[in-house]
Design a protein that fits this description.
There is one protein chain. The chain is mainly α. It has a single domain, classed as Four Helix Bundle (Hemerythrin (Met), subunit A) (Up-down Bundle). Helix content is 70%, strand content 0%. It contains eight helices and no strands. α2 crosses α3, α4 packs antiparallel against α5 and α5 runs antiparallel to α7. It is globular and about 50 Å long.
Length: 196
Amino acid sequence: MIEWINFSILIISTILMAFFYIKSVGPAKLEQKIGEKAYARCGNYRIIASVFELITAVNFILYLFFPLPIHIPQFFIWDYWISVILSFVILIPCLYIMLKGVKDAGREALFPDKKHTLYGGIYKKIRHPQALGEVFIWWVIALVLNSPFLFLYSIVWFPIFYWFCKAEEKDLEIRYGEPYIDYKKQTGMFFPKKKR
């Protein structure tokens, strides 16, 4: 019974994280309705989304102790050390890209700020380094927990994070206008564009 409760909470927290994160990336559009307080409200949405993301991570850990009674092996068929090595192979570049994105975005990474200008640093090469790094962290957690089910479940984050990025870009076009549209033409969404 507890395994189904954990799984239900996992699904609900994933949905609520996605819901509040999408709301958090729309301050410019929300500002058209409620004024400048939209930025603070979107910051609150981002914090709420982070809480649900943390709950989701806790559900991942609990799944190790309370797996669903389904026809998926509880553990990968290879030795655990292979899962650990694979997790580090994924974690190191992804964590670097994500943290570089957080550093270069500054406070804006968590709290939208109307006065913030377009980013520099890694953002000169790709538009969404934080999303690119973070989305693979779920596979890292699944590998550390040695769970094929959680590895498969983590696939759900790829369309969700893509949705986040598309929603954020729509709002950034409202916020920055033509300079952001030009920036999009010059940089790749997740990977650098080849120079012509």
